[in-house]
Write a structure and sequence with these properties.
The radius of gyration is 16 Å and the shape is globular. The longest helix is centred in the first third of the chain and has 21 residues, at 2-22. Helices cover 48% and strands 0% of the residues. It has helices at 2-22, 25-32, 70-76, 84-92, 94-97, 111-122.
Length: 128
């Protein structure tokens, strides 16, 4: 009985995690409004922060013309790319993921908000 409950809990957790991992671009667009004062996801235009257009799969600290912090350049020096894992960690806790980076935003606290923003960043057109 205990094994059955543990398996059910594990499956429920896994299916919930998968739903978050997939995200909803439309919901992500709404959450991204918190980011839009400093970033754009639909234009190759830098603001206070770099353009996030095409960020998914892009090398860290690689947007032409943006002056990144030394901390973010060091974080990406080994060729890291903004994959789901790095985006998830950074969006949840920017300063904890890359200490001394310039981003003032404290992070998104809800896993579903993070998954939704990532879905939006991957495909902003899907939010329309």
């Amino acid at each position: 009985m205990i094994k059955t409950l543990a398996c059910a809990a594990l499956l429920l957790t896994a299916s919930t995690g998968a739903a978050f991992a997939d995200g909803d671009a439309k919901a992500g667009a709404a959450v991204f409004k918190k980011c839009s004062a400093c970033h754009t996801a639909t234009e190759a235009k830098n603001k206070v922060g770099p353009s996030l257009m095409g960020v998914a799969g892009r090398k860290v600290a690689s947007v032409e013309g943006f002056k990144y912090s030394d901390a973010l350049k060091t974080f990406g020096a080994d060729g890291k790319v903004w994959d789901d894992a790095h985006l998830t960690a950074y969006l949840a806790d920017p300063k904890g993921t890359v200490a001394k980076n310039k981003m003032a935003f404290p992070g998104l606290k809800k896993p579903e908000d993070i998954a939704n923003v990532i879905a939006y960043l991957k495909n902003p057109a899907a939010a329309k």
